[in-house]
Write a structure and sequence with these properties.
alpha+beta, 5 helices, 28% strand, five-stranded mixed β-sheet, 12 strands, three-stranded antiparallel β-sheet
């Protein structure tokens, strides 16, 4: 561990949070001299303090231990680059619009890889009153169901959460050209459906 790099990062993050050395020390239950020693690179936090320190400073624990925060490239604003993540422990659904470090329940998550539907997850789309009524041919049992549907274009994202025992159907507003539909099956993963939406089956 490079104590000088870690200390400089602690100093940077503390200032970003608007905290004094004493305020940070009081939160962690240590002396402000200890914080000063870290920031001068003359020591490192005890192993029992790292998790709380990362929480107080709002930093990823691993990045904090490494003493550097690698910035991502600026978000270009295109929602069509949406990435989906599902926590295998609690089932939380998370998203990003570009490369990101996403974690849940203490585990780093990789973005889901979308496949084109090849049978078994077919859906029908019918236009009704200027909207699309979408139905999915899929079981909705506790261990095997469609957890969410998302429609993504470069300018907008629409998401709908689904639950076991409910009907696998939802309504979509009229969507811009180039939008794609995603469905997430709890057993088989993420599927991507491309337009044209005017066809009854896609």
């Amino acid at each position: 561990m490079d104590c000088a790099k870690v200390g400089q990062l602690i100093l940077q993050l503390r200032r970003e949070k608007g905290l004094t050395q004493r305020q940070l020390a009081d939160t962690l239950g240590i002396s402000n001299k200890t914080v000063s020693k870290w920031e001068c690179g003359r020591g490192a936090p005890d192993v029992s303090l790292w998790r709380e320190l990362s929480s107080v400073l709002g930093a990823d624990l691993l990045r904090l231990l490494q003493g550097e925060l690698a910035p991502n490239r600026p978000d270009a604003g295109k929602m069509g680059r949406m990435r989906f993540y599902v926590c295998p422990r609690c089932g939380n659904i998370l998203t990003s619009t570009g490369k990101a470090s996403i974690s849940c329940c203490g585990r780093a998550l990789a973005p889901l890889e979308a496949a084109r539907e090849t049978g078994g997850h077919r859906l029908a789309a019918e236009e009704m009153d200027g909207e699309w009524y979408v139905t999915i041919q899929h079981p909705m049992t506790k261990g095997h169901y469609i957890a969410f549907a998302a429609c993504v274009s470069d300018a907008q994202v629409w998401m709908h959460r689904l639950y076991p025992e409910q009907s696998p159907a939802f309504r979509l507003a009229a969507l811009p050209r180039g939008a794609c539909l995603y469905l997430y099956c709890t057993r088989h993963g993420l599927f991507r459906y491309a337009p044209p939406f005017e066809k009854p089956i896609f």
